[in-house]
Structure formats: structure tokens, C-alpha cells
């Protein structure tokens, strides 16, 4: 029996007998703790519903007063603890950066849904650190790739993703709500396909 058939059978069996696969839940559970990024102490934590107003504030600061996601979108994502992980970085109790990622065993993909760093803390390694955490989680779960979309105009972010090993694999025309800007589709392969 090949690996894909075995996975399908396992999924069917677990669903039939309502056995929960806690592998993702266990891997996505992190303890809040201090981290050092470029010789500066920060506090890394799982995002909570109480963080949403500050996350929206970061979006407004980054996106010229707009919030691509609203509070209900964040709340919906934070409820999905079995296949989502949202992290925040704080310093002196100020929320400085956040990242969100969805993990799919079926697609064998970790998809970075959202990342933002307050403007006065950009280029200090916070975004790099947060993405590296998600890449490690994806590797721990033996996923095939990490994927994301980025605005075509955001060349600075694209360079950060390239520095981490992401490659452009496509372009999504008119992807972003509101201004209909194109999105650059980027992927970081984690395993070589045989």
C-alpha cells in the first residue's frame, strides 16, 4: 500500500470511529516565552482574542490606515486551534508583530495567512523570526511546503521571503480586496519530490 493510500485509509478510519489525530494540535501548541532577536528581548505568545484590537492597529499602521482583515476574520481564525497558529511578539507589553499560518495535512502545506510588523520595528529581524518559527513547525509536521501571497508592490517583503528560500511560483491577478492589486504567489519547498 503506498503512502497516500495509507494516509487516506487512516483519515477514513479516524473519521469513522471519531478518533482525533492530535499530532497537529500538539505541534501547534507553544508555550509563551522570552526570545532574543538581534540581541533584544521580546515576548513570544500565542495570539488571543484580546490581541485582535492591537493586531488591527498594526494593520492600520502598515497598510496606510486600512485593515485588510477585520476583527471577525481574526476571531474566526483564532477559534481554529486544530489547524491554525497565530503568534504575537511583544516588547514592554507593546504588540509589535504577528503572524498567522494554516496547516493542512491533506495538502501537506503550511500557508502563511498574515504577517505584519509595526513600521518602527521593521528591519529588526522580527518578521524573519516569525516566519522561521512557522517553517520549523511545518518541518516538524513533515509538510511538503510553506506558501504565501504577497502584494506585487511589496518588494521589500518579497526580498525577505527570498532570503528565507521562498520562490515565486505564480501571480494572482486582482487578488487583494479593495484595490485589486496582484499577489505574488511564493512557495518554500521543504522536501524534494521523488
TrEMBL record:
PROSITE patterns: GNAT. InterPro entries: AcTrfase_RimI/Ard1 (IPR006464), Acyl_CoA_acyltransferase (IPR016181), Bact_Acetyltransf (IPR050832), GNAT_dom (IPR000182). CDD domains: NAT_SF. It holds the Pfam family Acetyltransf_1. Keywords: Acyltransferase, Transferase. It comes from the Bacteria. Residues 40-191 form the N-acetyltransferase domain. One of its GO terms (molecular function) is N-acetyltransferase activity. PANTHER family: AMINOALKYLPHOSPHONATE N-ACETYLTRANSFERASE-RELATED-RELATED. This is Ribosomal-protein-alanine N-acetyltransferase. It comes from Secundilactobacillus kimchicus JCM 15530. The lineage of its organism: Bacteria, Bacillati, Bacillota, Bacilli, Lactobacillales.
Amino acid at each position: 500500500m503506498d503512502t497516500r493510500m495509507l494516509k487516506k485509509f487512516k483519515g477514513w478510519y479516524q473519521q469513522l470511529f471519531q478518533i482525533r489525530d492530535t499530532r497537529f494540535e500538539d505541534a501547534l501548541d507553544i508555550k509563551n516565552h522570552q526570545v532574543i532577536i538581534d540581541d533584544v528581548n521580546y515576548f513570544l505568545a500565542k495570539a488571543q482574542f484580546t490581541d485582535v484590537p492591537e493586531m488591527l492597529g498594526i494593520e492600520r499602521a502598515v497598510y496606510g490606515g486600512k485593515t485588510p482583515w477585520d476583527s471577525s476574520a481574526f476571531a474566526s481564525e483564532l477559534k481554529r486551534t486544530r489547524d491554525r497558529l497565530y503568534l504575537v511578539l511583544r516588547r514592554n507589553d507593546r504588540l509589535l508583530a504577528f503572524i498567522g499560518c494554516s496547516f493542512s495535512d491533506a495538502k501537506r502545506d503550511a500557508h502563511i495567512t498574515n504577517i505584519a510588523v509595526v513600521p518602527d520595528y521593521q528591519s529588526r529581524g522580527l518578521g524573519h523570526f516569525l516566519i522561521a518559527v512557522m517553517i520549523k513547525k511545518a518541518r516538524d509536521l513533515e509538510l511538503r511546503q510553506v506558501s504565501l501571497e504577497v502584494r506585487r508592490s511589496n518588494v521589500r517583503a518579497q526580498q525577505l521571503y527570498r532570503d528565507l528560500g521562498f520562490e515565486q511560483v505564480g501571480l494572482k491577478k486582482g487578488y487583494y480586496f479593495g484595490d485589486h492589486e496582484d499577489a505574488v504567489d511564493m512557495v518554500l519547498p521543504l522536501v524534494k519530490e521523488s
